[in-house]
Amino acid sequence: MMNPSNSSHTRFFKRHLCLLGVALCMSAATAVLGEGAGPAFLIDASVTEAQPIGNRFSNVSVWSFLGTSADEKMFHEWSEAKPAGWLNKTYPWLEEIQVFIASGGSYLEHPRQAGDTAASEFDRDLFKDPADRTVLDDYDFSALVRACHNMLRQGVKPVLKLHCVPVKYSSQPDIDWFRVNTRPPDDYEVYADYISALVESMVDAFGGPEVSTWRWYVGTEFDNKTWWEAEDETAESTAEEFLKLYDWSVFAVERVLGENCGPIGSHAMMGGRQMWDPEIFFAHCQSGRNFATGKRGTRLDVFAISDYDRAAVDLTSVKESWPELKGSGNVLASLDRHRGGVHIRANANLPGFEKKAELTRKVMEKYGFGGVPIEVSEGGMVYGTDGKWLWHGLAHGGSFDASWTALSFRKMLDQEVALWSRWPIYRTSGLFSGPELAATNAIRLMDRMSGDRRIPVQASGKAASEIVASLSSDRKTVRVLAFNHAPDLENPNPTETLELDLRNVPLEGKVSVTVWRVDEDHADFWPQWEEDRTAYGITDADYYQSRDQPDPAHALLKEEHIDFWKSKDSAYSKLAELEKASVQFHRVEEGQLNLKLEMPCFAVALIEIHEER
Q: 469 Cβ partners below 8 Å, 6+ apart?
């Protein structure tokens, strides 16, 4: 097992060797590029895809409308402290907030039972008294209404994930690993009345025309037993109970908004240790008996999958941090069976994404849902390089996540996946405060391509770097996104000099070539934090969650260290600013332009070529 106390120093040393290599390569590259030393990419702008690239990062998923942990107030006080429209203005690509577990499943005063894997962590059940089983309609949706109001005030729409059943609706509730009730309701009609009342509360607050534009999900990873499981704990009963939940939930939404309401869909792992086969769900939606209406079939307008990587895993460290997770039926036990339970090396390059997307589309097409969009409703990196949780954001703090995010963008385009809803970690404290992350700046660059049409790219020579190219709808701007990602932070790729051969460019004469960069020297404060924390004497032993977590305030143990981190907010915010790295002028002759681009490890760059008149 890796010695965690030396790991960050080793990575620091390797990173600076890599950056030294950048400097050397930049000074020597010109002499050898003509001999074909660097990988080459042919970008022929005469051919483009028919449809625009689209906004692939239009959603953010939140564990609760308050945030990731109970001390946060994301869509209550924090959003209210910002001017109206601040979120949309700051992140113009952000259109929707997917609110996980929006309709209930736990309350803080619910006593932990002998069979519960964990205790409740949020007040999710929307009642005046969630413990009173003698009154089942004492609804109180005010907290959720307030959160939805603040989302709309900030220029984004809520996407409510209706899933976990309120505790008092299940006679035998079970609080599992995700700290919510996994059991079905005793009476689906009572549950449907609750969901209809929730929707009515939104209509009362915001009007029918507005709420009719919202999207809805029923279920989160419905094939995951730690989210949903029948009382007899069999796959057959669990599948049937979810089909009932889905039908009754769709019925409850349509009862208020009508059949012309916004899209309604569901979400499964579509891989891993599934409790039951999601094909059962698609077959039911196509032609199964609807448990709510008695008719055949159920609408399915959108479908989501999950996709997670791990930077590394030291299961011993994880178990020490989370002792309540020991047992046979949880995530850690699954990892134990996966590879012996000691240390799993990094695979942070979305290795199973293509297969998962292809299998999902295949089964959906089989049951007549080939035209239904596929999304990623949750995903990221689960563990840091120290083997500890990356719980706040499920992402890495530095440019490693930026290049990983660019890789996810390319894979979404290849697999025609509509969007990836990341966890809310645009900034170190979520969405509203703290320095921005390198990955946020990478998304900012990719958003510039959303209205463009993709240009096919042909690569020659061995290259770690990848390219996505596009042409604007008015045919006046060519964009080239480059990224150099390696799956293991501790084993970076070498710096590469890319030769870009652009042909049939619909520009002529003088053009401006603007380059934006996101890497350890540009728009990324994280390397400075790594240096500062080392100089201050903060070691791996001072973290209860991963040192790589982008929110150190929710990872460090000592208040002194948290105060030190917070004292750097202004300086790090400045380092995180995205600026143009360079602007040069070239000439396009007969539609051809040749460029060279240095790409360090874990870097993202965007080139914009625009005609100067």
A: 43, 45, 454, 455, 456, 457, 478, 479, 480, 481
Tokens 């996709």 found at? 307
Q: Angle, nearest 10°, between helix axes 526-536 and 4-33?
A: 140
- Measured on CA atoms in the order 259, 265, 266, 270, is the torsion positive or negative? positive
Question: Measured between alpha carbons, how far is 491 from 480 in angstroms, rounded to an integer?
Answer: 26
Q: What is the pLDDT of residue 38?
A: 74
Q: For the chain, how far is it from start to end, CA to CA, in angstroms?
A: 60
Question: What is the chain's length?
Answer: 613
Summarised one tens digit per residue, pLDDT across range 423-463 is: 999 999 999 999 999 999 999 999 999 999 999 999 998 89
Pairing of strands 580-588, 96-99: unpaired
Question: Looking at the predicted structure, is the pLDDT value of residue 260 above 80?
Answer: yes
Integer Cα distance of 525 and 443 in angstroms: 16
pLDDT tens digits along 350-396? 999 999 999 999 999 999 999 999 999 999 998 888 878 888 899 99
- CA–CA gap between residue 7 and residue 343 (Å, rounded): 14
Radius of gyration for the alpha carbons in the chain, expressed in angstroms and rounded: 25
Residue 250 sits at φ, ψ, to 5 deg, of -60, -45
In angstroms, the CA 613 to CA 25 distance is 35
**What's at 148, amino acid-wise?**
C
Beta carbons of 497 and 21 less than 8 angstroms apart: no
Q: Between the CA of residue 453 and those of 50, 275, 347, 470, 492, what are the distances in Å?
A: 7, 40, 31, 5, 31
> Are 64 and 125 contacting, i.e. CB atoms less than 8 angstroms apart?
no
**Strand, helix or coil at 480?**
strand
Crossing angle (nearest 10°) for helices 279-287 and 353-366:
30
Angle among Cα 253, 147, 94 to the nearest 5 degrees reads 90
| Model confidence pLDDT, tens digit, residues 244-255 | 999 999 999 999
Name residue 338's amino acid: H
**pTM of this prediction?**
0.91
Closest CA to 370 of 379, 358, 381, 378: 358
Is 403:544 a contact under the CB 8 Å cutoff?
Answer: no
CA 565 to centroid of chain Cα atoms = 25
Closest CA relative to residue 454, chosen from 410, 501, 516: 410
Task: Mark 243-264 as b/e (b = at least 16 C-beta within 10 Å).
Answer: bbbbbbbbbbbbebbeeebbbb
- How many angstroms separate the Cα of 468 from the Cα of each of 231, 347, 401? 49, 22, 18
Q: Kindly provide the b/e burial profile for residues 159-169, where b requires at least 16 CB atoms within 10 angstroms of the residue's own CB.
A: bbbbbbbbbbb
DSSP state of 446: H
CA distance linking residue 299 with residue 305, whole number of Å:
18
d(CA 450, CA 454): 10
